[in-house]
Amino acid sequence: MSIENINKFLDIALKLSAPIGVAIMLFLQTQFVSRSEFAKAYERADVRLTKIEELLIRMERHDKILADHEERIRTVERNQNK
After folding, report:
1. For the segment 15-68, what is each residue's pLDDT rounded down to a tens digit?
2. Is 32 strand, coil or helix?
């Protein structure tokens, strides 16, 4: 290859690199979520987490109530067996 051919190749490659780079950047920008989409997803996740926390609190209360009932039943059974 002569220097002229190399220069032509480099000239074409450099001229094409800018539009190709712009196309790649535009494609990459479509792959990320926008701020509004992120905010909506965050709000939905926050609502779900709040509901899960409330459910866990209720389950903990029910667990305590069940333990209390179980203890009372065992006390009654012990008193009946005497």
Report:
1. 999 999 999 999 998 888 889 999 999 999 999 999 999 999 999 999 999 999
2. coil
Amino acid of residue 23: A
How far apart are the C-alpha atoms of 10 and 43, rounded to whole Å? 51
Report yes or no: 43 and 51 within 8 Å, Cβ to Cβ.
no
The letter for the amino acid at 21 is: G
Structure tokens at 79: 């008193």
Q: What is the DSSP string of 11-75?
A: HHHHHHHHHHHHHHHHHHHHTSPPHHHHHHHHHHHHHHHHHHHHHHHHHHHHHHHHHHHHHHHHH
Q: How far apart are CA 53 and CA 55, in angstroms?
A: 5
